[in-house]
Amino acid sequence: MLAAIAVALTLLTGCATQKLTPLNVSGVQRLTTAERFSVTTNGIYHGWWDEKPLPGQPTNLAIFSTSTNTVIQRVGNPPKLTKANLEFLRSSKWAANVILVLDPARNRILESFAVDPAGNPTCDSVEQTTINGYIGWWNSTPEDGDVTGLPNETVQINTRTNTVIDGFNRTTKSTHIKYTVPPDPAWPKNSIIIIDTATNKVTYSFPVEADGTPSSMKSHGNGCTP
Asked: Cα dihedral sign for 104, 107, 110, 114?
């Protein structure tokens, strides 16, 4: 009995002292989104789903665009999307310009990546920013209460999505401002721009990260008309 216990302890000790050699990945570079995915001139997306599937990998997929809220491409022979599929795809968590690769049978997102307005893959965040507006001189009141020269009504536009994310009217104190966004190529990219609705001019702008965090607060006001 004691001999058996001694043998068992020896085996356990031997396992515990074995050295594992870590995998050296120092020379491996992670591919960017633009390198992993591509889009043709006719709007067809290419990626890992074009290659020979791995064991157990779903082959019947639906590729969905959150900018149009529709399935824009099918891979294999996916089933008709269910209500649960559509609710998952149209969740408010997704950003405005995102491509989602769905396995409808299991209702699983297998891939997601952001795209620019032209449909080209980018490294932007695929989820909505949690920042719904910014506070600055354009929507604040000076300590002395004198608002002379300050805009009465402004809107904040995220140029990543060309959508109004916030607004403010000094007279009504309302933050719900109806404003039609006419995108302008002259607007700074990946930024928040402040527009004075009385003049339709950009009075201030600052760059932001994909999640909405300001990259810096350096002014780029250029007075261009949207």
From this structure: positive
